[in-house]
Specification:
The chain is an alpha+beta fold. The protein folds into 2 domains: 198 residues, no CATH class; 103 residues, no CATH class. The chain is 28% helix and 26% strand. Helix 8 packs parallel to helix 9.
């Protein structure tokens, strides 16, 4: 779980912007005690106008884990990152994150430019006390970085040399674990590497499959299928089940010739495109006159968006995952969004969900009014054109004042300034 994070000089974020998931009080369902007296919120929601920078904070969180986890084999590859802020693009990007993996706290700082990492510093708390994991400093374009490992790792000199030799200037020391084999058990490194690999997800999921492939896999997994069927029934979509089917494919003669003549299309893909049949999903609907099936293509966008969200929800409540979702509520009815959040909060253990939203009605719910540390408001600084992130409990609002009403009248910012609706072309 993420404890806190800050970033500067990244996309729309110029000056240092911080978010924290440390809760001020314990809750039976909103937060988790990750260390004695340390409670972390399971939920974080960001509001703001279009182009305010809400999504960029999600991508920044994804980015710091990508820098920590992903390696390169070519020294010419760029550091895994998006662009820095345009007006300070000659300066390095800086990031910090504190997170808990398997109940161990890690503090990670990194500073980099497009071509190389300037420095990175990783501490951990294996027995509750702070200890160095490693530190690394850039020495020159064609020179191996200076790397020092903490004594608590108890790594042999040969193992340290292997990691150093496999660390290029454009990726982290930890990610070098992917590039070499070792003669000894380097458990602290492998545990952290595997935890990031298995529990941290990219924005909107890791290469989520198309709906047909996703639902085929679900159909063949009894536990997951049972969950999907239950959630579809609870969503009042009049859907009681689904199944994969094979349907005829109609390819016109003209399209067939174009595919056959296109040398850039691999033969395996040509075979798939020209097949007489294709796979699809049909959904079973109930009525008093009997059941009937409706193909996937005739389902509403909201229904398909809800089905897509079940992939994330299942992971969140059956394991310990961090998901970053951009516009979770897109195309979904408000009640479905609220239900999704309640299922997550009441059934998850140490998972964390951070998402952006335009659904301001959520701000009227007791859930957010009584726990304002779950909400951030994001707006553009008009002087610097960069994004500013403010947690809802930082405004000093009286507990009886509604977040929804305060936001609606502009008291909390993070709203577009639209002006008069009358247009004068002169």
């Amino acid at each position: 779980m993420i404890r806190d994070f800050w970033v500067e000089n990244y996309l729309s974020i110029r000056d240092r912007q911080s978010i924290s998931f440390v809760s001020k009080s314990a809750s039976d369902f909103l937060n988790v005690e990750v260390a004695p007296g340390v409670f972390l919120n399971k939920l974080g929601i960001m509001y703001g106008a279009n182009a305010s920078g809400k999504s960029n904070m999600l991508y920044a969180i994804q980015n710091i884990f990508s820098v920590l986890f992903k390696s390169h084999t070519d020294i010419g590859d760029k550091v895994t990152s998006a662009r820095p802020f345009e007006l300070t693009k000659d300066k390095p990007t800086k990031m910090h994150i504190t997170f808990y993996a398997e109940s161990i706290r890690y503090d990670y700082d990194v500073e980099y430019v497009a071509d190389y990492i300037i420095k990175e510093l990783l501490y951990y708390y294996p027995n509750g006390s702070k200890a160095l994991f490693y530190e690394r400093t850039f020495k020159g374009t064609d020179i191996q970085a200076e790397i020092k490992f903490g004594q608590s790792l108890e790594m042999k000199a040969e193992t340290q040399k292997t990691l150093k030799d496999n660390t290029l200037n454009n990726h982290s020391v930890l990610s070098a674990y992917r590039k070499a084999s070792f003669k000894e058990d380097i458990r602290p490194i492998s545990l952290l590497f595997r935890w990031v690999e298995e529990h941290i997800h990219e924005v909107n999921g890791d290469s989520v499959k198309n709906p047909i492939e996703e639902l085929k896999d679900v159909f063949n997994d009894e536990k997951r299928k049972k969950f999907y069927q239950l959630m579809l029934k609870k969503a009042d979509l009049n859907i009681s089940g689904f199944r994969p089917v094979t349907v005829p494919r109609n390819v016109s003669g003209k399209m067939r010739r174009m595919i056959l003549d296109d040398a850039s299309i691999p033969e395996s893909m040509k075979k798939k495109f020209l097949s007489d049949v294709e796979e699809d999903i049909v959904f079973t609907n109930k009525s008093k006159d009997g059941d009937f099936e409706i193909p996937r293509r005739l389902q509403s966008m909201g229904t398909m968006q809800y089905i897509k969200s079940l992939h994330f929800l299942y992971d969140l409540i059956t394991g310990n995952h961090v998901y970053l979702l951009d516009e979770l509520d897109e195309d979904m009815h408000y009640d479905l969004v609220l239900y999704f959040l309640n299922v997550f909060l009441f059934n998850s253990d140490k998972s964390q969900l951070i998402f952006t939203s335009q659904e301001t009605a959520l701000l009227a719910e007791d859930l957010l009014n009584e726990h304002r540390d779950l909400v951030w408001f994001v707006e553009k600084d008009h002087k610097t054109a960069s994004s500013v992130y403010s947690r809802a409990d930082s405004y000093g609002l009286h507990k009886n004042l509604s977040l929804y009403n305060s936001y609606k009248i502009g008291r909390l910012g993070a709203k577009p300034e639209l002006g008069s609706p009358f247009i004068n072309f002169d």
